[in-house]
Amino acid sequence: MTTLAQNKIPLFSKAIIAILLALQIAPVVMIIQTAFKTPRSLLESGMFTWGGWTASNFHRLFVEQSLAPDLLNSILIACGSMILSVACGALMAFALTRWQSNVKKHLLTTLLIARLLPPVALALPLFLVLKEFMLHDTISGLVLAHTALNFPLATWILMPFMDAVPRVLEEAASLDGASRVQTFSHVVLPVTKPGIVVAALFCFLMSWNDFLFSLILAGSQVKTAPLTLNGYVTGFGTEWGPLCAGACILLLPVFALSFKLHQHMIASPTQGGVKGA
């Protein structure tokens, strides 16, 4: 079946797919090459040639620049924001899919508008709120700021998965004496695991790649990895070697999560419920 399906793909479509893949992969290859080159080799041969590789850029990042603490800050902020966003988004999505009211439409519109607002428009209000509660320039403050940005996204991602859960499963759990909380945690959440994985991955990436909030809401006491790498872009020029080395490091968790979770992402929303039945 797979062979037949592949044979039905026109040659023109295969060429388009190959071009798109090349456009996606080429920048990553260039980043990896540049990360292992010295400034001299970049000037002499450019970034499109092989050879002349060195690990001096990574040594500079971790020994001279001390990127490790900032990398740890990014991991803590991204993981904390991901957990809070998905937890709150799952509860909100479950409530909205089970709640029949005219207010539901207005609430959904409010969540959508909140997500569509540019982050720069939210930066100043968040700065004032965090400063009022003495959370400015702290890991907790950045976690809350990223959660405010990711929570609507997690809600919208999880709503179709929550809505696809058969109501029969909830009714059966209720007949067995399960409370609403127990039904949500032991029946709904396992069934919507693919959606939770997708929402968690997107929330992690949004927080992991954030630069604006880290720049405005922190920067003196708490620095994230993207903020540190920005220091290699100066008025005297860009230090491409350390910058691309840092980009390679930032890409590792993204690739690791994608390869680890891709099986859950393509699973059916009701797969767990069917197995459980």
What is the H/E string? HHHHHHHHHHHHHEEHH
**Mean pLDDT rating:** 84
Number of strands: 2
Number of helices: 15
The portion of residues forming beta strands comes to: under 5%
What is the total domain count? Answer: 2
User: What is the third-level CATH name, the topology of the largest domain?
Assistant: MetI-like fold
Main pleated sheet: 2 strands, antiparallel
Explain what you see.
The two termini are 29 Å apart. The protein has two domains: 10-54; 69-276, MetI-like (MetI-like fold, Orthogonal Bundle), CATH 1.10.3720. The longest helix has 32 residues, at 67-98. It has 277 residues and is mainly α. It has helices at 2-7, 11-35, 39-45, 56-64, 67-98, 103-116, 119-132, 139-163, 167-175, 180-191, 193-208, 212-217, 225-229, 240-265, 271-276; strands spanning 233-234, 237-238. Strands 1-2 form a two-stranded antiparallel sheet.
Salient structural properties:
277 residues, mainly alpha, MetI-like fold, 2 domains, two-stranded antiparallel ribbon, 15 helices, 1% strand, globular, disordered C terminus
Short description:
This protein has helices at 2-7, 11-35, 39-45, 56-64, 67-98, 103-116, 119-132, 139-163, 167-175, 180-191, 193-208, 212-217, 225-229, 240-265, 271-276, and strands at residues 233-234, 237-238.
